[in-house]
Structure formats: structure tokens, C-alpha cells
Amino acid sequence: MDLDFTAAEDALRAEARDWLAARVPSVPLPSLETAEGFAAHRQWEGMLFADRWSVVSWPEQFGGRGSSLLEWLIFEEEYYRAGAPGRVSQNGINLLAPTLFEYGTDEQRERVLPSMASGEVVWAQAWSEPEAGSDLASLRSVAVRTEGGWRISGQKTWSSRAAFADRAFGLFRSDPEADRPHRGLTYLMFPLDADGVTVRPIGRLDGKPAFAELFLDDVFVPDEDVIGEPGQGWRVAMSTTGNERGLTLRSPGRFTAAADRLTSLWHSTADPDAGVTALGDRVADAVIGARAYQLFAYAHASRITAGGVIAAGGSIGAESSLNKVFWSELDIALHETALDLLGPYGELSDEATEAPAHGSWAEGHTFSLAGPIYAGTNEIQRDIIAERLLGLPKGRR
Amino acid sequence: MRFLLDGEQREFARTLDGMLGSAGTPGVVRSWASGDHGPGRALWGRLGEAGVFALAVPEEHEGVGPLPVELAVAFGELGRHAVPGPLAETAAAGALLGRLGGDAAHVWLPQLASGKAVASLCVLSPGGSPYALDADAADAVFVVDGDTVRLADSHGPVQPSADPARRPARPLGGVVFAQGPAVTAAAAYAADVAALVTAAQALGLGRALLERTVEYVRQRTQFGVAVGSFQAVKHRLADTLIALEFAQPLVYAAALALAADDPAAGREVAAAKVSACEAAYGAARTALHLHGAVGYTAEPDLSLWIRKARPLRTAWGTPAVCRARVLAGGTLR
Ligand SMILES: Cc1cc2nc3c(=O)[nH]c(=O)nc-3n(C[C@H](O)[C@H](O)[C@H](O)COP(=O)(O)OP(=O)(O)OC[C@H]3O[C@@H](n4cnc5c(N)ncnc54)[C@H](O)[C@@H]3O)c2cc1C
Q1: Is B320–A157 a contact, with Cβ atoms under 8 angstroms apart?
Q2: Which class is A246-390 in CATH?
Q3: SS3 for B246?
Q4: CB half-sphere exposure, A53, CA atoms < 13 A
Q5: Residue B193 Cα distances to A205, B91, B155, B265, angstroms
Q6: Which atom of ligand 1 is nearest to the CA of A130?
Q7: In this predicted structure, what is the pLDDT of residue B333?
Q8: Which residues touch A82 (CB under 8 Å, ≥6 apart)?
Q9: pTM, to two decimals
Q10: Spatial CA neighbour of A125 closest among A168, A157, A94, A90
Q11: What is the DSSP string of A25-71?
Q12: What is the C-alpha to C-alpha distance for residues B230 and B228, in angstroms, rounded to an integer?
């Protein structure tokens, strides 16, 4: 057992660091939850892609570098340490791509992946419905067989960035007669500007249109856009939820970078004569938490890959629920500690002209509050941990 | 000892609750947040008629106060209905001028007491805020700096807050109209009044959040049952209630201590401020989480309540500042 990096890993880190140092915008891009910011971020994704930094773990033929999971973690550490912009392509890259690697056809992979990696086509996840959140299998939107494909109808909601995205992937009930709700679902892809699609933006807490409702009225989807076998949608979808909860959605780099910012904030705001106060203890705990998550990730990466390409496989399973609960709570603790350190300045929104002088923590805080909800709420994750990892009896659900 | 509100106080709360319940406060909050103060000022006038602001103003200046217990009762209702504006600041300005007396008191207090004028207040001190809340809506912005107090001429740009209905800005300019140890003492008292009523407001806010959430989890079903039937959901709501219930008596005890000019009043207020604001923020986190993604959206009025909780927690004494005050003496009375 060791924590030493190989020469190749160190080289990748150095190359990424130099590239980022030369290109990360010195003035942060506008919020990616606005039309203006979305466009700027899309352009940034194109720059990343041009030098094969947008999807380092993918095979080279799709624009990646074939990097290992550990190399990807290293890249992400550098990415967030450099203060690089958030990724508008993340739902496609983290959720749809692994599904296509596992269940897609060669034709689908060639058609979908490169334009996803370049930011030219941004994907939204259309799983949830107004009445189907935690109980996703109760979804009601339908796919009806037609000549050469399917016609989909129904309502999807809380689809992140769908207000600005180009295409979506989602689950539909294709066999209403199936004996259990999980059966008879089909997983497919569709354009958000197709006939019959209405996208209505929804403001999140701070009013930014961070997600949207989708109204689908008899939208045609050709057979080539069905992922996996019709009727097998649940299995196809569930194979990738581990990615949503686990490392690939929230790499430790994000938290180690935030912990570094928090530590600087502590040093710049703390009274040197007061010693370590209770707030200082919380800063230290956040630093420890970020380091724990990073080390857990190294161990996790060592366990599930032996230098292969993660995107192409590597089942993550129930362990990703451990990640989900840990990172979502760590994220809130980090941001709340920052706001507390800021005292009266902690209430400033990032749009306040005086916010940048204090590190602009508000949007990060708002976003952290959603962490225990999306990607499966923490209650559901704790149930999975208790039942699948601890072997406790299944509760009423 | 009879540590309970009397009939008249309870009736006062009921009256305000009824009045605010039919006043369409969510619309008022949204207007205020967009910079349209008209509906907020109209509501302010009605609160003035109901006697809310007179509670902070001495009788010789057309007030009925200072009556900290009644103020706490009233502010609980203002918080429950998420009323926007420099509420604590106006009450505290009343307390400040009431103690100082002089020309400014003659000019401003009757107007503040009746609700005709809106005031903001900024106490520049270590750990305090450099901003005056809603300076753009206030008729007068008072600034205490050490042992001086001035009436600001203008204010800097509004700094958008995490709660869009709060519009903090730095007060600018103004001529000192009082100076000396009397200012320092009056400002300390005014800050205690502000902290007390902020705590009361937070408690009302927390209770409203809890009520709405209990209602929601009763009717929201997943897996074929109400989500409120899951133990994890029940326990979280039970903990929220416990926190609010145990913060409430601290708020009333602090009000009594202020009413009695007890030397330990500042510490009692600090204890109330920490526990009420932590309980309210906890209630906001719980409300957000148990509403699922619905709780994370701006359209439902719930968001107006959720977003108030965090700034109240740091206004007029951050948790760290309040905790330090609690520790500065022996046990609380
Ligand atoms: C920021 C954000 C982005 C999102 N992005 C997307 C997206 O891109 N695409 C998409 O399809 N969806 C998205 N979602 C939706 C998300 O997947 C759902 O919010 C989530 O599955 C929870 O469903 P719900 O909101 O309906 O909550 P509900 O299922 O109604 O749950 C309400 C409350 O009850 C609790 N609860 C429910 N069941 C149980 C149980 N069995 N035991 C204990 N407690 C329980 C929950 O934990 C929660 O606190 C997003 C949500 C957010 C907040």
C-alpha cells in the first residue's frame, strides 16, 4: 500500500496544471444557470475539448485520453484548484455517457459522444415527474410504438439545465400492462426542440432558471434513439445511478479546493489573539472531511480499476450511496462555515458588488442545499446503505 | 411566578395573525424584493395602526413602550407571515432615540410609533454589520459609530442579499447629532432590542415553516404512502419542533430581562438569539429538504420563508458573537 503517484500520473498533473494556469478565465464566468453564462460555459467546454481535457477518461476515439480513474481524479483536483468553471455538460458526461458505453450501440456512441464532449450538444436528464421523485418507478409518461420508433407523451420536471440544453434522455412507460412498475419502461433520447416538446424554465431558490419542466405531446423518437432493449429501461437506468451518486458526479477535487478556500478565509478573518475558536474547529473539520473523501476516492479507485477506462465499465454499486451522503453533507458544512466566518457579509448574494471581496460563497451555498435531495435523497441513500451494505431487513417502502 | 402570556397578549397575537393572514404578504414580499416598496409601506401603515411600532417608543413620544414582551409577541407574528422591511431596525431606532431624547426624538419618534415613518439603523462595531437594512426604503437611517450617532444623508449601492427581500446598503454621510457615553449605552440597549425582536421573528418564521412542512408531508405520497409516514421524515420534524419549543421560553425570558433593565439582559438576549435563530434555520433546512425538489424552487411561497432564515441568523449578533456574550458572565439568571 502506498500513496505515491506514478511518473505518468505526476506528468498528467503537471500538464493539466500548466494548461489550466494559462487558460482559466481570470474573471469568473457568469453563472451557468443563466442564458449568458450557459453560452460562455459552452464555449469553455469547446476549449477543453480542443486539447482533450473535457473527458480525459474516455477512449481517444471520442475525444478523451483513455485516462484511468485515478488520473481523472488527479485532473479534477487540478481543475478545481485552478478555479476553472463548472461544467454545463456534466449530466451528459456523467450519466448518459456511461450508459451508452455499457448499453449503447456503436452507432449511438459515435453519433452522440463527440458532440457531447465538445459542448456542442448539451444533454438534460428527464427522469423525474411531478408525482415520481424518490419513487421514480411510478413514472407515468408513456412511449407508444409507432412506425420506425416511438411517440412519447407526458410531463417531466426538475430537469437540470433543460432551459438551455439541446437534448434529453429519459425513462418512459412503454408497457402499461407490465406486472411491476419497474418493468415495461424504455430508455430513450430526444431533442428538446422537437415538435411537441414545451420547455418551461423553473427558478431554483435564488430565482435562476437552473431547471425546467418538460411537457411532451406525442413527440416522435426514432428507434435509433432507444438505449438498450425496449422494456429494459429500468435496468439500463439503474446501472448508471451509481455514477450520479458517486465520484464521477462529485469528485473530491471540488471539495479539497473549497476546503483550501475556506482555510484562506479563516486565516484572513480570524482574530490572531483568539486562538482556535469553535468556527476554527469547523474549518478544520471541513478540511479533514475533504481529505477523507479524497483518500476514500483513491482507495475506491484502486479497488475498482486496475488502470482501465472507467467510462467503459467498473460497477460502483451500493458504495456510491456512501459517497452521496458524505459529499452532500460535507458540501453544506463547508459552505455554512464560510458564511459563518463572513458574519454580516455572509448574507451577500454573489451579485452584490461587495461579494467578490469576500470570496463569493452564496451560489455555492444555495447549490449545496440541494445536494441531499438530487441524485436520490439522503434518506433513500441511508436505506440503501443499511439494507445492502449492513444487511438490515428491508423497511416499508 | 406565572411564566405565560396573558389573555391580552394572546389576543394581540391573534389579531395580528388574522390581519397579516389576509394581507397577502407573499405578494408584498415579492414586490419589496423587486424594489417596489408601495405594498410594503401600506402594510407598514396598518402595522403602525395596530400599535406594533409604538411598543418600542416611550409614552412621552406618543408610544406605549418600551414593552419588550409585547414586542416579542408582535414580532413572532411578523416572522410567521414573513413581513418584509427594516422591522427590527425601526423598533431598535425607537429604542435608541427613546433613550437619547433630544430633538431627533421629538421629530422622529411620533412618526415611527404611528407607522408613518420607516427607519433603518446601523451600529458600526466589531462583529456588527456595515450595512443598513432597506436603506433605500427608509425615511431615516441612523448610524451609530462608537459614541456618536448621525442621520445618514444617503446610502451606497444596494447589496443583494441571500433573502431578496432584504436590501442592505452602506449608509453615507450625515452630521453627528449626539455624542458621548449616553450614546454608547443607548446603542447597546437598542442592539439588544433588535436582537430580541429578530429572535422572535425567527421563531415565528420557524413555526410557519414547520406547519407548512407537516401539511406537505401528509399529502405528498411516494411508494404509495404519505412521505410523512416514513420514520426518517417524522423524526426530523419532531427534532424541529423540539428546537423551536425550547427556544421560545428563552425569547420570553430575554424580553422580561430587558423589560426589567436587568444587568444580565444582554446575555439572556444573546442566548435567545442563538437558539431561536438556529432553530429557525434548522426548520428552513428541514422544510427545504422534506419538500424535495419543490422546496428548492422559487415559485412556491415557501421559498420566501426559507430564504429569510439564514440572514436573520447573522443579523444583530452572529451565533459566534452571541455565544461569546453568553460565556462572558456566570450562569444565566
Ligand atoms: C437541484 C436539483 C436538480 C435536479 N435535477 C434533476 C434532473 O436533472 N433530472 C431529473 O430527472 N430530476 C432532477 N432532480 C429531481 C430529483 O431527482 C428529485 O428531487 C429526487 O428524486 C427526490 O424526489 P422529490 O423531489 O419528488 O421528493 P419526494 O420523493 O417527494 O420526497 C420528499 C421527502 O420525503 C422523503 N422521502 C421520500 N421517500 C422516502 C422514504 N422511503 N424514506 C424516507 N424518506 C423518504 C425524501 O427524502 C424527501 O425529503 C433534481 C432535483 C434538484 C433539487
Answers
A1: no
A2: mainly alpha
A3: helix
A4: 23
A5: 31, 7, 24, 10
A6: 26
A7: 54
A8: A17, A20, A21, A24
A9: 0.95
A10: A168
A11: -SSPPPPTTSHHHHHHHHHHHHHHHHTT-SSTTS-GGGT-----HHH
A12: 5
Query: What are the counts of helices (DSSP H) followed by strands (DSSP E) for chain B?
Result: 11, 8
Q: Give the Cα separation of A211 and A157 in Å (integer).
A: 8
Q: DSSP character for A393?
A: P
Query: Is A81 exposed, middle or buried, given 0-12, 13-18 or 19+ CB atoms closer than 10 A?
Result: middle
Q: Are B130 and B168 in contact (CB under 8 A)?
A: no
Mutate to test the pocket of ligand 1, among A95, A241, A373, A382 (most ligand atoms within 8 A of CB): A373
* pLDDT tens across the length of chain A (397 residues): 889 999 999 999 999 999 999 999 999 999 999 999 999 999 999 999 999 999 999 999 999 999 988 999 999 999 999 999 999 999 999 999 999 999 999 999 999 999 999 999 999 999 999 999 999 999 999 999 999 999 999 999 999 999 999 999 999 999 988 888 888 999 999 999 999 999 999 999 989 999 999 999 999 999 999 999 999 999 999 887 777 677 777 899 999 999 999 999 999 988 777 777 889 999 999 999 999 999 999 988 887 765 443 443 445 567 889 999 999 999 999 999 999 999 999 999 999 999 999 999 999 999 999 999 999 999 999 999 999 999 999 886 6
Fold of A7-87: Butyryl-Coa Dehydrogenase, subunit A; domain 1 (1.10.540)
HSE (CB half, 13 Å, CA atoms) of A8? 8
Q: How far is B12 from chain A (nearest CA, A)?
A: 32
Q: Give the burial class of A239: count Cβ atoms within 10 A of its Cβ; 0-12 exposed, 13-18 middle, 19 or more buried.
A: middle
Q: What is chain A's percent helix, strand, coil content, to nearest 5?
A: 50, 15, 35
A128: CA distance to ligand 1 center in Å? 8
- Cα separation, B100 vs A301, whole angstroms: 67
Give the 3-state secondary structure of residue A391. Answer: coil
Q: Distance (Å, rounded) from C-alpha B195 to C-alpha B315?
A: 8
- Domains and their CATH numbers in chain B: 194-329 (1.20.140.10)
Domain spans in chain A, listed from the N-terminal domain onward: 7-87, 123-231, 246-390
Cα A142 from Cα A153, distance rounded (Å): 5
Q: Which three cell numbers stand for residue B187?
A: 446603542
Tell me the residue type at B278. E
- Write down the ipTM of this complex: 0.93
Q: What is A123-231's CATH superfamily?
A: Butyryl-CoA Dehydrogenase, subunit A, domain 2 (2.40.110.10)
Verify whether the Cβ–Cβ distance B292 to A133 is below 8 Å: yes
